[in-house]
Amino acid sequence: MSGSDESSTPTSPDDDDLAWLNRHGHNRAQVNAGIDRAHRSRNLGRVPRSSRSRRRRRRRKKSRKVHHWYRPRNTVVLPLLVLVLVVAGFLFYVNHELGSIRRAPLNAAYAGKGSLGTNVLLIASNAPTTAVRADVATMVVQLVHIGTDGTHAALVDVPRDLVLPATADEARATVGVRYLRSDASGLSTALQDVFGITIEHVVQVTYAGYVKASDRLGGVDVSTGPGVEHFSGSQARAYVDEPGITSIEAGQRNQHWLRGIIEGMFTPGVLFNPFKVIGLLHDFTPSLVIDDAFTTGAMRSLGWHSRGLSPAQTLYLTVPHKDYVKVSDGVVLQPDLAGMRQLGAAIRADNESGIAVFDN
């Protein structure tokens, strides 16, 4: 029995069986090879514990790694970067549009007293957008005064049939005739003399710009006396150009139209929409001709100065006048020179309450 027990060998020798194998004369190299094979078959597919731990740590570290575009700090940085780019593009386009406006020698120097605030002579008409001169038959002249603090303004209508007194260079004539004789610079000189103020800039605009801006705003509300009408651009233009109305009525209607455009622009849907602002700017710039001293920098400065201005703080008035009288070649409007000088003194002193006395 003992011989049969000694002749049976284990099929899977362990380390404890080495002595038994040695006693029976097995080669040590063969024994070690058998042990290695047994261990490999026993641990097939398994990785040593130290290697598995290192791999788990690498996987956890990789899973915790967040792509740099989505790191928490970039939730603030990226929107700010986009905002900066949008603002920079907007300012670049605004500067480009302002620089593309046509310029001409429309204004004249004034040797009289200076004025507080800024005065701009606005001449609107039905002239083609390609014209440098206004169309006298439909011309509406507005003296725009912007206060020193930029929070209040006044638009003074100067009817084209109003007679202006003679100056050192020009005889007595109406606003329209003075413009025909000596262009905008001569008209600016005459108004500076009669009001006793300084007119810093002259702006000519065609009604095509008003029409496009009105349509972009979806129409504008225009006061028609008895009530308020919502007009498209072409409807507002027809209202201002209605045949048979006096030059005073034409000027007042133009003011109401311009007021409707300004009020439409001062809405959140426009002020906080850079694309709408750019569109409105693009509507107006081809229709403008400004004096050559009204540089892009000066326009930006005036716009920034007036950023606190609102439609509610703007006065609309007609220049002091008397009655219409017949003359040899038609009908003219007689001026109230004393009233014009009083209004001019209020403008020169930037006296808002003094200007309001003449409010329509």
Secondary structure topology:
Elements lengths: L1 H6 L10 H6 L4 H15 L6 H16 L9 H26 L2 E3 L13 E8 L14 E7 L6 E6 L4 E2 L8 E2 H21 L5 E6 H10 L3 E4 L4 E4 L1 H8 L6 H19 L2 H4 L2 H11 L3 E4 L4 H10 L8 E5 L2 E7 L2 E6 L1 H12 L3 H5 L4
Parallel strand pairs: 1-10, 2-7, 4-11
Antiparallel strand pairs: 2-3, 3-4, 5-6, 7-10, 8-9, 12-13
Which terms would index this structure?
360 residues, alpha/beta, Aminopeptidase, 7-stranded mixed sheet, two-stranded antiparallel ribbon, 47% helix, elongated
Your description of this structure?
The chain is α/β, with parallel strands linked by helices and 360 residues long. It contains 14 helices and 13 strands. It has three domains: 2-64, no CATH class; 73-99; 102-356, LCP protein (Aminopeptidase, 3-Layer(aba) Sandwich), CATH 3.40.630. It is elongated. Strand 3 and strand 4 (153-158) form a beta hairpin.
In short:
With 360 residues, this protein is an alpha/beta fold.
Beginning-to-end CA distance, first to last residue: 137 Å
Named CATH topology of the largest domain? Aminopeptidase
Structural class: alpha/beta
Specify the overall morphology.
Answer: elongated
| Largest sheet descriptor | 7 strands, mixed
